[in-house]
Amino acid sequence: MSSETTVRKIPAPLINPEAQPFFQATAEGRLCYKRCEGCGQPHHPPRSICPHCHSDRTTWQTSTGLGTVYSASMLRRGVPVPYCVAYVTLDEGVTLMSDLVGFGDSTPAVGTRVQVRFVEAEGGAKVPMFGPVEAT
Amino acid sequence: MNKNERACIVGAYEHPTRHAPDKSVAQLHAEVARGALQDAGLNASDIDGYFCAGDAPGLGPLSMVDYLGLKPRYVESTDTGGSSYLIHVRHAAQAIEAGHCNVALVTLAGRPRSEGSSGTQARAYNIMAPEAPFESPYGLVPINSYAMAAQRHMHEFGTTAEQLAWIKVTASHHAQHNPNAMLRDVVTVQDVLASPLIADPLHRMECCVVSDGGGAVIVARPEIARKLKRPVVRLIGGGEAVGYINSGGIDITTSAAKHSGAAAFAEAGVTPGDIGYASIYDSFTITVLIQLEDLGFCEKGQGGRFVADGRLVAGQSGLAINTDGGGLCNNHPANRGGMTKIIEAVRQLRGEAHPAVQVKDCALALAQGTGGMLGSRHASATLILERA
To answer: pTM for this one?
Structure first.
């Protein structure tokens, strides 16, 4: 594992009641998203009411944690430690904001395959970030 | 009377300062309000509508109405970041048309340069903002948000770093003629690409300046506009739209300008080919390229070719953009570029831009703003203005 995960301080996620189950899952090593039983579409960030069809039948799903980089950018200046923000499209079809770790000092190309890992933020919460796919 | 003539911009003023450590933000608002009133030939007592956004100190419009001693019968403080002021002009026109006010003042001012602002500082999320738990750990700031849009645009359409750099080069060619511009040196594509990479693929020279200052415009009923001595600039079309990441179904290479622009052109009854001058919000180079595409000045994906080789330098083709030097070289007061976009469009329509960049017989101009962050959620506003 590269050093950036240990050096950079990850700000604590600002967790509200609706987001609580997501972070309960990350504490157990699971990445969750929501799917609507009404329209069948996944969404993220998770809501109690579906943003696509406004049904209140949204349920938690567990992702395999595998996905591809939609876009990413390494921020190199003006911050104590460079870091790489990204959007990752999970194999289940939903895209989420995250950081990429473990790719050294380059920005991974669009389409790079990535796998989730859980990084401890300030205050102890685990937040999902993505790195190279580990060999099985 | 033009069927679209609902309201006119009768006063416009850009504060000449770019660094104001010894002034208060309210003071800057008052100075730009005074400047716009003098430009229009109106008095503060004529103002019966007041518009401001989040740069104004205090709760919504309350502190500024008090400080400026206004007696408005209509106030509004819609805040969509840098595009707020274009939305204010549109809403002021709607309020005038509905009879709610006759003369509306819109002000913007701030001093981010004196306060040490930069594009890489961590953002303060509202703790109950629904996106906060899912974004606050990851360090999304303006530049890496726009940089992700640039990275994706390069991937989808083959846009190059050189093409993006041309947007800055174009701005610098214009800024050399603006004595108030913060950066007046003409730069080359090589200069831009040799400046430090801040957030891949954007370089330092692809970022707007951080400047103190402000600006104001006054929107008035057409009957009032015709009694004043200044050339009449009328609003003939407007649009606004919010863009977001669609609950995970993402597309950050298309902005909400696609919708605000279409609405504005439909209302005005004109096409992009009719526009002689366009103020295009330039927080970063990529912002300009994506908006030009989404407004229909070129096909989606062709923005790189459209901006390259100096085609948008004044006098080079059918369209000139950001002839004041834009946010990239001239001014980005309060970290919000929308007001200066309106002001330069007004200058062009009045024939009062610098002679070196004045579009000949400029009859139709467009002002375009993007507030917030292209890579997450943003608001686009488009105005189409006509010389009467």
So the answer is: 0.96
